[in-house]
Amino acid sequence: MRLKINAVVLSISDRAAREGVDKSGPALIEALTRLPADVTIVAVEMLPRDFDGIVARLQFYADRGDVHLIATSGGTGLAPRDQTPEATRSLIDREVPGFAEAMRFTGYANTPLAPLSRAVCGTRGGTLIINFPGSSRGITECFEAIRKALPHAIGTLSEQVAKCST
To answer: Which of 14, 61, 73, 99 is least surrounded by CB atoms within 10 angstroms?
Structure first.
């Protein structure tokens, strides 16, 4: 049986939300479609960097019951309005720090600024939430860092994979 992944992509950027133009969302969609799974993009949204708005959309999609993955882009840096990690952390049940650590570690090979990312990864119910950086290049690099583990994580969480294996 081929793994099924229903995914939501949320681009969190004041400019993208205001102007309706975004490069990070398409980069996430491209990366997701290369997974060895049947990936369906359920929704794509551009949101401003507003804590309450981010929490509301994360909660809405995670609590629907049919979304396996929410991939966010942007809002993970040190700017005062970068609140994606705090919004994510406020509603997850369990953190999955290995994904965030792998993304930062891989990113550091390409830029000394990677440790400034405050990305959070975790689960809410049967949904995995992953914060990616806001740049297309950063998304590509970070996605590659977790690409091999991502299908197994989603398969286990969604109970499409019966047991852990190597």
So the answer is: 14
Amino acid at 115: P
Between β-strands 38-47 and 4-12, what pairing exists: parallel, antiparallel or unpaired? Answer: parallel
Q: Which residue has tokens 């952390």?
A: 89
Query: Distance between CA 75 and CA 81 in Å, rounded?
Result: 7
Q: How many helices (H) and strands (E) does the chain have?
A: 7, 6
CATH of region 4-157: 3.40.980.10
The pTM for the full model equals: 0.95
Q: How far apart are CA 41 and CA 144, in angstroms?
A: 19
Q: What is the pLDDT of residues 81-105, one digit of tens each?
A: 999 999 999 999 999 999 999 999 9
The per-residue pLDDT for range 7-17, each reduced to its tens digit, is 999 999 999 98
The first and second tokens of residue 138, run together, are: 């950063």
